[in-house]
Amino acid sequence: MTDQVLADGLVAALKAAPAVTALLSQRIYARAPRVPTYPCLAVSRMESRVLEGETLEHVVTLTAVSRFGGPEEARAVVAAVRAALHDARPAIPGRRLVNLRVAYADVFRAADGETTLGLLRLRAVSEAV
Q1: What's the burial of 126, exposed, middle or buried (CB within 10 Å: 0-12/13-18/19+)?
Q2: pTM score
């Protein structure tokens, strides 16, 4: 499975989650746009490794970006994404997600002083179907 297939499945699951789309509309991306509209969320990093046979472990980093003027919006996005994805089983063509969990989340001010970032790190385990 390519990382892009997993990223697309996660994005589709988030776009189907009413709490997430209430905050972000459809500004949820498998790849960050060149000129984003805020707030938005993008898959920012992915790594995969073989655990055993055809079982893969994936570590996925999602980054929420807000220019709200404080951390409230980014915190709300992080909470909604966490609730939508933790223990979820989005459809991934050719794979079956055995486990999907949010392993880490943080909200912090970016170096520019105007932007707030929300970071979520997911751990997913998948096997071939």
Answers
A1: buried
A2: 0.94
Q: What is the 3-state secondary structure (H, E, C) of the chain?
A: CCHHHHHHHHHHHHHCCHHHHHHHCCCEECCCCCCCCCCEEEEEEEEEEEEECCEEEEEEEEEEEECCCCCHHHHHHHHHHHHHHCCCCCCECCEEEEEEEEEEEEEEECCCCCCEEEEEEEEEEEEEC
- Rounded CA-CA distance 6/68 in Å is 29
Q: How far is CA 41 from the centre of its chain?
A: 7
CATH match of 3-128 with 1.10.287.1080: no
Block means of pLDDT (10 residues each) for the chain, length 129 residues? 86 97 97 94 96 94 96 98 96 92 97 97 95
